[in-house]
Amino acid sequence: MSAGDSQPVDSSAPPQRQQQVSAKPSEPSPLKQTPPPSSSTSAAAGRRSGSLSSSGSGPASLPTRDRDAGHHADNVGVQPSTGIQVVQPSTFLGSYVRPRAIVTEGPMTPATATQTTPPRPLSLVDREQIEGLRAIRAFLKVRTSYDVLPLSFRLIVFDTALLVKKSLNILIQNGIVSAPLWDSRTSTFAGLLTTSDYLNVIQYYWQNPDELKRIDQFRLDSLREIEKAIGAPQIETVSIHPEKPLYEAMRKMLTSRARRIPLIDFDDETKRATVVSVVTQYRILKFVAVNVKETQMLKKPLKELRMGSYTDLQTANMDTPVMDVIHMLVKKNISSVPILDKDGTVINVFESVDVIALIKGGIYEDLDLTVGEALLKRSDDFAGIYTCSIWDRLDTIFDTLRKSRVHRLVVLDENGRLKGILSLSDILEYILLEGESEGG
Ligand code: AMP
């Protein structure tokens, strides 16, 4: 379902102070608590109803593993999160005027050349924002994916002959959500297994429930076949050499809408591609947050930067069948759906990675659950839900990225109701593209 009451950001409204959802990070907030399981046992018509697990999910537990990276070590100084974080409210109260060509100082584009009114002089905050962005881009151009990798890490690569159901168990046991694929018959890199592949398998099962026996025998090399069968777009895996600048890796992520890309080296001796690791949006942004002190110069609030999504928000409630949410994730190519109560207050977020726990062991009965029931299957190392307001500044968002395991922030209004979503893709896009089109 769509949140029809979510308003687009109103740039003319006067700035307001953020109301905290959680008074202090250490105090329990509504979002920190595991929502009570739905009493509804409603399941999709004609399908079996799944049983409700009593093992509660534990949002905001200490992140002991980094599911995002596919390995366990981390050299970027990640602080464990001890609770749901609320980004501190912004104190910036400037009026809304988006400067043109704020980053580059190249020749005037036709758009600026023909404008009749002189551009507004840049304020100190504008200039600092430009300098901060320049510093981040300069940093990304001289650092490579190798720099982002931990000094020591474990890389898990799946042979394409592995059964899909076994791959799920291995991901869960290792606390990871993706793995490069290797075709041992041809000794070649065969792509990246991600949650999108499992979403495809689920869609296939949903369309062909009678083929459960066959689905049980699916191996990872059947994934392309499944894509074709359900009419999913066939997307080539984008990869990058680990010695290429991070800036290039981020550009590739942006153009392909990939949230992670494999790092592929070429072995001169064997003349074969070698999988080195996987680089993710999360890891790159954390690396920037930890290492680029100029992120502190980004003093503009989300509202002014127009960062994030504020319209056509995909939402659900605890009683929504989890399959409806899975369809939303696929149809809109998004990685999460906020879960609202009847007043529109955000009480949880269903993430695409949550489907892994739902179909572990190749058992598909849990797809009959409601969202509330499905969320109880979530792993104990769930990082928690992070919230902010449209008045939060980018520097404080970077502070949160530096300190915590954040994959997105849910933008709330002063009453804890959903206003928008700020995903890592939105931050990445801003960092790379802001001002680019105007100035080259
Ligand atoms: P993500 O899936 O988090 O990488 O986000 C991809 C894009 O979709 C970003 O521009 C997000 O702001 C937007 N987005 C993420 N989740 C939702 C949602 N539930 N409804 C609408 N837009 C979303």
TrEMBL record:
Belongs to the 5'-AMP-activated protein kinase gamma subunit family. PROSITE patterns: CBS. PANTHER family: AMP-ACTIVATED PROTEIN KINASE, GAMMA REGULATORY SUBUNIT, LD22662P. Keywords: CBS domain, Repeat. One of its GO terms (molecular function) is protein kinase regulator activity. Residues 1-23 have a biased composition (Polar residues). Gene3D superfamilies: CBS-domain. Residues 39-63 have a biased composition (Low complexity). Residues 232-294, 307-369, 376-438 form the CBS domain. Coiled coil: none annotated. Residues 64-74 have a biased composition (Basic and acidic residues). InterPro entries: AMPK_gamma/SDS23_families (IPR050511), CBS_dom (IPR000644), CBS_dom_sf (IPR046342). This is CBS-domain-containing protein. Residues 1-83 are annotated as: Disordered. The keyword Acetylation does not apply. One of its GO terms (cellular component) is nucleus. The keyword Repeat applies. Pfam families: CBS (PF00571).
